[in-house]
Amino acid sequence: MAHIEEIRNKIHLDLHTVRNTEDSKYPGTYSGYDDSWNYAKFKNNFKLEIVSRSAREVEFDMIGIDTPFANAFRRILLAEVPTMAVEEVFINNNTSVMQDEVLAHRLGLLPINVDPRLFEMKKKGDKVTERNTLKFRLKVRCKRNKKAPTDTTNPDELYLNAKVYTRTIEWEPIGEQKNWIPGGVRFTEDDILVNVLRPGQELDMVLHAVKGIGSDHAKFSPVATASYRLMPEIQLLQPFRGHLADKLKGCFSPGVVEIVDGEAVVKSARVDTGSREVLRHSELADKVKLLKVRDHFIFTIESTGALEPLELMREAIKILKDKCKVYRKELDVFTT
């Protein structure tokens, strides 16, 4: 039974292969197991535990779900949760060394700190309104600094506006936007370098930002990264002491294995990278078992700044629920 439980619930890491990767928890696969799905059992087994959280990044454990669901959340976060991004750049003057197309592309990738849920999607042919567009102005000219030290060669001292940062770009509210956008609109960071100028060079342009999703263009993706990995499990099949304990500890990332009272113990399997270095040593390979827990996902979400990571996850859940409603409606039509 223990062997069957391991096949059902764990992925086994060998030196050159990975075993038990396919899910086998289907009704009738194992005698004596009820693998039929029901809501009560899922609700009892499912857990979501937040490990660390900040304004830009969150790490949490999602326990008790299958890989397709975890991957669905990851893909929705990357490609279907909307944000605002610069879509049109109206260039009045650009005498910098950066070509218009390159500069426009660069401006499009700047993350905007505004709640996209306040806006509507701008469809092709729609007119600009306060509900579908944000307007920005970039107007800057580089000049010589008459007060610069005579012995300096630093461009930041020799010239004024030598470097153009996101703080140079000004938001110009359309209609009543000032009244219904709390806190105003800005880029997520003030010190993102946009361009470099020299005396006489100038930028004068108007930017229009609209709402979009990452599947249309990567600039609309709300996350810098959204990834998951399975929870590692390390089983020591015998005690390790002396030089073997030191060698075992050296085979893992710092913090995974520690020596307590002269004996090696697994301190935190969570931080293991899965290198399988321990399996390369014959004196250790058959005394250690490396596993991954099949339904325990360690999720990491790093936001670009428009919404907090947990808020992005909530939006991803809403989108998946809406998808399920569509499929359920279609199935109802099909079965009637």
Q: What keyword list fits this structure?
A:
flat, six-stranded antiparallel beta sheet, 336 residues, alpha+beta, 18 strands
Report on this model:
Helix content is 25%, strand content 32%. A hairpin with a 4-residue loop joins strand 1 and strand 2. The strands form 6 sheets. Strands 1, 2, 3, 4, 15 and 18 form a 6-stranded antiparallel β-sheet that branches. It has a 4-stranded antiparallel β-sheet with strand order 5-14-7-11, covered by helices on one side. Helix 3 packs across helix 9 (309-335). The model has no long low-confidence stretch (mean pLDDT 93). It is of the alpha+beta class and 336 residues long.
Determine the N-to-C terminus distance.
Answer: 43 Å
Radius of gyration over all CA atoms, rounded = 27 Å
Give the SSE string: HEEHEEHEHEEEHEEEHEEEEHEEHEH
What structural category arises from helix and sheet content?
alpha+beta
Mean of residue pLDDT?
A: 93
Please write out the topology.
Elements: H1 2-9, E1 10-13, E2 18-19, H2 39-45, E3 47-53, E4 57-63, H3 67-79, E5 83-94, H4 100-108, E6 112-113, E7 134-141, E8 143-144, H5 155-158, E9 159-160, E10 163-165, E11 170-171, H6 177-180, E12 186-187, E13 193-196, E14 202-212, E15 223-236, H7 242-250, E16 257-260, E17 263-266, H8 282-285, E18 288-303, H9 309-335
Antiparallel strand pairs: 1-2, 1-18, 3-4, 4-18, 5-14, 6-12, 7-11, 7-14, 8-9, 10-13, 15-18, 16-17
Helix pairs in contact: 3-9
